Amino acid sequence: MRSRTLLAVAAVALTLLPTAGAGAASSGGLSIRLVEAPTALRNDPRAQLYIIDHVSAGTVLHRKIEVRDTTSQPLKASLYVGGASISNGAFTPADKGAPSELGSWSTVNPTSVSLQSQQSAQAEVTITVPKGTPDGERYGVIWAELPSSGSGPVKAVNRVGVRIYLSIGLGGSPKYDFAIDELQARRAKDGTPIVSASVRNTGGRALDMSGQLSLSDGPGGLSAGPFPASLGTTLGIGQTEPVTIALSKAITNGPWKATLTLRSDLVKHTATAQITFPAPGQSSAPVKAKPADTPASSPWTAVAVVMIALLAALLGLAALRHRRLSRRSASSA
Question: What percent helix, strand, coil does the chain show, rounded to 5?
């Protein structure tokens, strides 16, 4: 039987309106959120939304989730784990019941919850990574699903979920990093100016991109922005995909100095390029982006500062010793 799935893969308390067959309400919906995250990732905002862990093969991982009914009627939701993949800049959940490693490794206790209006309940997710599992990153979703509705061969399935990014391997977690390669200016047919940034994942973990773009040095010294990047772009390991930013229709063609800042997890990079917007429905040629990270963002800057301080201290000690030796020589004479 085919199914039509309506998805909302979680941020904190994302909601999805139930269908009529699931007990429709005038407002509210079913929501799900991660209750706990590793202490080591407490400063990582993405780790507060999703399960983002690095473990060795043979590890048993436990995480708690909370499901809430924000409708005016009772809801019953089933809880389970399914697989997912990353391609074409999107985190794509697998169809329900499709075979997946994370689905076969995971259990949820309890497997369903019955909620009264405005009530919440917690469940524990256990992921048992088999010994001998090859290194690499696996993707999945913890789902809270309402009963399907509709008749005939097409069913509407309402579910909300928390993403899983599980890295497997010995030692510490692979690094997160990316590069902003090019910026391209274009205009939609309705005249909306759009900037597309070609972003390349250069690290060993998947990334969810966010950020903003500002324009400066425009005609007459004009500036504009910042404009938020469109959310939803996910980069798998080694992948390159566009991150888009839609601007105000009032933006003139330019030329402009575009400054783009993107981030994922605790990694942030800034790049600049001179762009000019074309006529509606057209695209300008891509322009190579120039890195513009602040010196403090580079770990080598901190190392250089420490080395300079040590060198200055050594020179100071050498000068002090030279003065003392000079005094002794003078008094002996």
Answer: 15, 45, 35
- Residue position matching structure tokens 């060993």: 204
Q: What are residue 280's phi and psi, to 5 degrees?
A: -55, 135
Q: How far apart are alpha carbons 155 and 21 in whole angstroms? A: 10
- Strands (E) in 202-295, as ranges, are 207-208, 210-216, 224-228, 234-235, 240-246, 256-264, 267-275, 287-288, 290-291
DSSP count for the chain of H helices, then E strands: 2, 23
Q: What are the tens digits of pLDDT across the range 94-133?
A: 998 899 999 999 999 999 999 999 999 999 999 999 999 9
Rounded CA separation 239/207 (Å): 10
Domains recognised in the chain with CATH numbers: 3-168 (2.60.40.10), 178-297 (2.60.40.10)
Q: Token pair for residue 260? A: 């783009």
pLDDT in tens, 60-71: 999 999 999 999
